Amino acid sequence: MRITFYDGCDRIGGNKLLLEADGASILLDFGTSFAGERLYFDEFLTPRATHGIGDLLELGLLPPLRGIYREDLEMAGSGMWERAGRSPGFRDGVRVDGLLLTHGHVDHTGYASYLSESIPVFTTCATAVISKAMQDVAQSGLGREVCYVIPREPRGGLLSSGNSRKCPARQRQFFFLDRVPRGEDFGDFWRRTGSTRQLEWREPETRLEIGGLNVRFWPVDHSIPGACAFGIETSEGLVIYTGDLRLHGRGGAMTRRFISEAAALKPLALVTEGTHTSPVDPVSEDEVYGNALTAVRESRGLVIADFGPRNVERLLTFLRIAHDCGRRLAVTAKDAYLLRALNFAGEPGVPDLLADERIAVYQETKAVKAAWERELLESCPSAGAKKIDCGDVSRDPSHYILCFSYYDLNELIDIQPEGGSYIYSSSEAFNEEMHMDLDKLRNWVNRFGMRLVGDPGSRDGTGKERGFHASGHINGKGIIELVEEISPRFVIPVHTEQPEFFRANFGRTHRTIIPAPGSTVTLP
Prior knowledge:
Blueprint: E1 2-7, E2 16-21, E3 24-30, H1 34-38, H2 54-58, H3 80-84, E4 98-100, H4 106-109, E5 121-123, H5 125-137, E6 148-149, E7 152-155, E8 158-161, E9 169-171, E10 174-176, H6 184-190, E11 199-200, E12 205-206, E13 209-210, E14 213-219, E15 228-234, E16 237-241, H7 252-264, E17 269-273, H8 285-298, E18 303-306, H9 312-324, E19 328-332, H10 333-344, E20 359-362, H11 371-379, E21 387-388, H12 390-395, E22 400-403, H13 412-415, E23 421-424, H14 432-447, E24 451-453, H15 476-486, E25 490-494, H16 500-506, E26 511-512, E27 519-522
Parallel strand pairs: 3-4, 4-5, 5-10, 9-11, 10-12, 16-17, 17-25, 18-22, 18-23, 19-20, 19-22, 20-21, 23-24, 25-26
Antiparallel strand pairs: 1-2, 1-27, 2-3, 6-9, 7-8, 13-14, 14-15, 15-16
Helix pairs in contact: 5-10, 8-9, 10-11
């Protein structure tokens, strides 16, 4: 049994692992490598969609595994595979029995867009729904085709998407590990795209077996619904892959249940995340609620809540705050679309968007709306002011908490707030690009006389206002608890920039393996 680590072993995110055992081959996540892409690309210099997988393969961002990618993204005569064949990790004729996705964050799912449609996807219902909702509302792009693919065809030596009427999208085969919703609303969501393009859809099914190997899964707590850890049963022993998880969230009991049940199985290997190795106790979601509640109560004008996309737990935290403070929570159409889809799928705790009077849908200032947005807004009842716009917020700013992000800031020009609070409830900046975005955010906030709450601090680490964001990742003390209780024979860290933490803490008690990019670990 062997595991090859194509990405994510020396950086945070971009996990792409290939487990091979007993004649089966399983991919464990296939995420976008943001750190890798930053080496070559930026906002205006991007991989060329007209070249399919060529640019990413040439730059080493996609593993050189011939046979796993979509044939319509391989440019005949380009020489891409001949050049890739000179790579040390090149393999030809690779067959994969399935892709396991731990959760819906793009750094774990994004590059699945390039994989062959013949590879079935195994994940939770919530992760599948989130992946599809994200794709439905996204602007077109190869890196967004996780749930269904838009076929490409050669034109003039380049690749182009076919006519939307004559060339339907094709849905990948999904196997939900937990449940398959059967309601009419969910079926209507699953069987169409977010545009006018038709969809050749496939009914999701349930299965806990890939290529003859049994798969276990455990729900775990993370900053997105549907996150889970996997256990793959091989003849050599059980391999556990944690994905991303934490102990300090409101769903921490799920993670503790996973740890307890995994320990009882005496696994051969534990492949675990190590994003945060600091011993400092992390901020909890309840602390975020308390601090943000105080900030909203002290605000006399508009309140904007800025938090990560698809962080439904944080959205529900601010919904609770809005109710406690006599305000309404106004979400963007994209957030509303995701909430609606998760509600259709029966995700616990997600409110019915249309029936919940505490929630309004903010209509952005735009000339043309996509099909998914038109359908969403048309479904909103005319009574009860479910749909609001910049004029409604401008007339009564103290009545709302707006769920905005950096990319919604130009709406402030139309709203014209006078004072109020901008609550930054997202992750801190960890690279220069994010610091530059924060500089611009501060300029917008200052321009309209708002107060920035939860400032993540400057480049030198000063000015940080802690307590307005709860990380989605386990901390150093939690990692030690996780490893010591599960007690595998082998510990293998991924999704980390601090691999030496594992050698220092577990090197004497467990066989600790620090994988290098592209390396293969053979077990036992």
